[in-house]
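Q: What would this chain look like folded?
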Amino acid sequence: MPSIQNLVADLNNGSIAGVGASPSSDDENLFRAISAPQKVKYSFVHMKASLNGNRLSMASALRSIDFNGSYLHYDAAWSTIANMDVNRRIIVSGNFSGCMFKVYKVSPGVFKCAHISRPGTDSDKLVGMMAAYANSEGWTEIRAVPTVGLIGNNGCSGIICVSYLITNVRIETIRLEINSLGMIVGKTMWIDAV
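A: My prediction, written as structure tokens:
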């Protein structure tokens, strides 16, 4: 039986076969620029991740204290950030079609996840700006997840990244390739000690 406590492992082993609805981009618990010159901002909403049959559901917890993670939004012109800690162990982000997903360690028990846009002809400009900002803040990159070239292969019409903090011992991250029905058609998992 799949469980939230084994979320990434269950996504990887196929016990969870699909993904349901995600929070609206209008729902945000934190939305503000961290570094306007380097195009880095907070943009996330608390969510209550749960399992509905064999699908992962992500309900907005914008006005609720009952949450277990955050949904990290996408912005075409920015790198967006969400906090990960013992209160928000699960970070989910969608709308990838070539963007980069990164996980950083900020301090013991405190992490940041980034959805880095890669628009147009200068696709790595924001990736470089995010790296420079993280370096200036002393953040340590734990994981970089590319999403280039996956849309259109094997029925993939969308990409979702999920990271789960397990008791400050490790972070499990999975990149899910999703078809138009929300079913998982491809996946890659990473486990990083923290």
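Helices lie at 7-13, 125-137.
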